[in-house]
Specification:
It is a single chain. This protein is an alpha/beta fold and 207 residues long. It contains six helices and 13 strands. Strands 1, 4, 5, 6, 7, 8, 9, 10 and 11 form a nine-stranded mixed β-sheet that branches. Helix 2 packs across helix 3 (83-89). The structure holds 1-O-pyrophosphono-5-O-phosphono-alpha-D-ribofuranose and uracil (URA). 1-O-pyrophosphono-5-O-phosphono-alpha-D-ribofuranose (PRP) binds at residues 75-78, 100-102, 107, 109, 129-138, 164, 190, 198-200.
Length: 207
Amino acid sequence: MTVTILNHSLVKHKLTNIRKKDTKTRDFYQNVSEIAGLMAYEISRDFPLRKVEIETPICKSEQYELAQDVVIVPILRAGLGMVDGIRGMIPTAKVGFIGLYRNEETLEPVEYYAKFPDTMPNSIVLLVDPMLATGGSAIAAVDMLKKRGCKDIRYVGLVGAPQGVEAMQKAHPDVDIYLASLDEKLNENGYIVPGLGDCGDRLFGTK
Ligand code: PRP
Ligand code: URA
């Protein structure tokens, strides 16, 4: 299993925008979506291709297309902020949903929704959630995906804490992790430091 921190100037610039406490809902969403799109571009670099025979306006030609379905699975709510950006890069991707929230006292994830396309077991699954804090939500989400037979699962997040990365590596060593940033630590309330605050609230204007 690999942990990849995307080293890209545009990603860093947009991440700075969403870390700023004064960034408003519309700009926050826009930047999250754009970072997700840039990450999808990098992550899909090695997706398997198959040869296809096509006809251009000039002649018949052998070209390439994606060999496997891609399914984006956001963890609700905050993961929703990453879906549009990834679909912009991979418009054929299907979308499944996992509803989880962190109990604010125990920090344990609580499941409340699941809906997936039928093709999941043979697809490349991009599990998306901007924040990898204790790792509890991501670990529970991967458990849910594996129960449905998913074999190729890649976790895509924006900001991670060392504790969350370590917990994921331990629980699911077969899942590659992609982040825009690995931050310093968690604070006593389970928030990532320096982080960007409560991502769901900032995306959807609920606080
Ligand atoms: C946030 C975030 C992750 C989770 C990360 O969701 O979007 O799902 O916390 O924390 P963890 O790694 O410690 O599990 P939250 O529970 O705030 O729900 P929301 O997206 O509905 O706001
Ligand atoms: N969830 C968030 O939205 N932010 C954090 O910093 C940690 C968990």
